[in-house]
Amino acid sequence: MTRRSNDSMINEMVPLANRLLYMQVVRLVASLGVLGYVAAATARVTVAPRLVVVGTLAYLAFAGVAHLFWHLLGRRNITLFGALLIIDGFYLCWVASVSGGSVSPLRWIAVLHVMMTALLASYRTAVKLAVWHTLLALVTLQILDAGYGAEAFGVKHPPALDHIATACFVIAVWLSAVGTASFAAMNERELRRRKIDLEDLARMATDLEQVSTPEEVGSTLRRTLVEAYGFSRLEILAVHPDGVYPLEAGAPAVPAAGLDEVVCRAIEAHRSVLVAWADPRLNPYLADRMPNAENLVVTPLFAEGNAIGAVVAEHGSKQTQRIERRVVSMLERFCAHAALALRNAWLLEEVRKVAATDGLTGLANRRTFEEALTREVARSARSASALGLVMLDIDHFKKLNDTYGHRAGDAALQNVAAVLLDCAREMDIVARYGGEELAVIIPGAGPCEAAAVGERLRAAVEALGAEPRVTASVGVASYPAAADSAEGLVRAADAAMYDAKRAGRNRTSVAAAVDSVASRTR
């Protein structure tokens, strides 16, 4: 995602059709001013007033036909727009010449014409038009200097007066062109910036709809802010009451440090905080993540009134460099949108976790276990590797509930689950299969390895010091030795577990290999 260039957006601020229409209004107002002046000061007009009226009506008719022609073309026509400006110059020069020459009040309509062109077109067009009006004024002055003023315009002024009036007119034209164009350019540039900001915000909102994890939300926000405002460094922190952690892929989702002073200040103020540099004594976490950072802006992330994070951005390497208020305001808007998306992503993760885990023990539930076992059996079949399964049942669990109560039974289940998690490898999957029955999927374990793991788990349960003390019966089966499918593997491990119960409980039983079972049935 890249920002659009300024040049590609200049003509999108006001459509050309609207600019042409507004210029038609300017021409109409100027023509009415000319006719009003001719009616009020007939004595100063050196030609028949009827001629001025006819000329003005012809000028308006030509402009109207040109405007109609522009609409019939059905497309933009910059050449026609420029041609009309040239005709405007001829008309204004003519009415000024026949109503007093260089000292005619109508001459100053050209200044207004230049100003409106700068506002409605562009500063380049205004400069070109200023050149055109200057050229017409100088040509008129040359005619007067040559002594043809009386013949051409019916007026005669002292040469000094003509020169002074022309000089004042040229200066006024250029001051109006440059001044109006400068102010218009600043306003238009600000509008372009705001339009780009809103487009970036809308684009980020669209991108956030395509992601679902907190890390993806953080990556989207980081990419958008860096590309939009060119921050040299940027950190997105997830805030917890007891600390923060970076919101990025691979980072641990646990608090790594206490809240830094600037982060606390931004959260308490509920707005962005600007700091020249982060004192390492007060902000050890930021000093570690962004060493020697200067010119920081810290923006809190709030969702439903709660602080859930913060964005820390470095916007320059020099302490004298200042960040625009517009950027700070837009940064807060970006963060507000991202905070809601981040909150939704965390809620979605929580829902997924609840759907996939057992509420009492925190282990994978039956559905997750079956999906994982099917997946691991398919993987073992593709790689021709072994897969072990341990089924564990707490001995005399009903008696434990009847004697000590269900709370004690729940506590026993939780203790056993914690032991299994401690003993299991990172790749192993520990699940609550049902009731007091637990299961452990052991990728890569053949019959001997799975039997050793099952015995180690049984011994760990027996060694639990919590009261009431419990033991467990363990059944072990492996793929493909004891079964050739996920369902068969569960049946084999479950049957081995019941063999352990029948043999006196608190022991480990291993399912027989498929070949041994087949030979025994024969």
Top keywords for this entry?
alpha+beta, 59% helix, 13% strand, rod-shaped
| Tally of contiguous helical segments | 17
**Helix/sheet category:** alpha+beta
The largest sheet is: 5 strands, antiparallel
| Uncertain runs | 1-12, 516-522
Number of E strands: 10
Average pLDDT figure: 84
Question: Helix coverage percent of residues?
Answer: 55-70%
- Which of globular, elongated, flat, extended, rod-shaped describes the shape? rod-shaped
Report Rg.
42 Å
Strands side by side in the biggest sheet: 2-1-5-4-3
Overall domain count: 3
How big a fraction of the residues is strand?
A: 5-15%
Please give the alpha-carbon distance between the first and last residues.
70 Å
What is the succession of H and E elements?
HHHHHHHHEEHEHEEHHEHHEEHEHEH
Describe the structure.
By secondary structure, this protein is an alpha+beta fold. The protein folds into three domains: 7-195, no CATH class; 214-354, 2-Layer Sandwich (Beta-Lactamase); 366-521, 2-Layer Sandwich (Alpha-Beta Plaits). Helix content is 59%, strand content 13%. The protein contains 17 helices and ten strands. The chain has helices spanning 16-40, 49-73, 78-97, 109-120, 123-145, 149-153, 159-208, 214-229, 261-269, 284-289, 325-356, 366-383, 397-404, 406-423, 447-462, 486-502, 514-521, and strands at residues 233-240, 243-246, 273-277, 294-303, 306-314, 387-394, 429-434, 437-443, 472-479, 508-510. It has a five-stranded antiparallel β-sheet, with helices on both faces. The chain has a five-stranded mixed β-sheet with strand order 7-8-6-9-10, with helices on both faces. Strand 7 and strand 8 form a beta hairpin. Helix 7 (159-208) runs parallel beside helix 11. The protein is rod-shaped, with a radius of gyration of 42 Å. Residues 1-12 and 516-522 have low confidence and may be disordered.
